[in-house]
Design goal:
It is a single chain. By secondary structure, the protein is an all-beta fold. Helices cover 0% and strands 32% of the residues. The chain contains no helices and seven strands. The strands form two sheets. Strands 4, 5, 6 and 7 form a four-stranded antiparallel beta sheet that branches. A three-stranded antiparallel beta sheet has the order 1-2-3, with no helix packed on it.
Length: 140
């Protein structure tokens, strides 16, 4: 989580890391209960799970980022693929369902917004590290 603002948090905050091998499927959920944001990452293959919770004291979060974070100099050896991504907003804002940034080699399927404008769904996002050959085809 990258909170900043009135709650007094700055920088990237997170819990324990977890090793994942190329091809592992991870389920990632970030939810809000009251004022506490909780992130849970579960590895479908190994069954391992890590979580991190942070009370942001009501500070709003208005940015979602799908990214390849590299804590070391190692680069991903294959594409990083997000499937069935769903964002739920507190208020209707259909324009928030459009990506504002992406890498030159990345792919994202057309996002769809719900009729009430509060939910954005993207079936597939592929992140490709520069200099690493694509390992999957674009498309759904």
């Amino acid at each position: 989580m990258n909170p900043s603002g009135p709650a007094g948090f700055n920088g990237c905050l997170g819990g324990d890391g977890m090793d994942a091998a190329p091809g592992d499927n991870l389920d990632i959920a970030i939810t809000l209960a009251g004022t506490v944001w909780t992130q849970v990452v579960a590895n479908r293959k190994s069954g391992k799970k890590v979580s991190f919770a942070l009370d942001l004291k009501g500070q709003g979060q208005n940015w979602a980022t799908l990214a390849i974070e590299q804590p070391t100099a190692l680069k991903p050896v294959s594409d990083v693929i997000f499937t069935s991504t769903r964002l739920t907003f507190a208020a209707s804002d259909p324009t928030s369902c459009q990506p504002s940034q992406h890498g030159p080699n990345d792919y994202f399927a057309t996002p769809y917004v719900s009729k009430d404008g509060k939910t954005c769904c993207v079936s597939r996002v592929i992140l490709r590290e520069q200099g690493v050959a694509a390992t999957t085809m674009n498309g759904p």
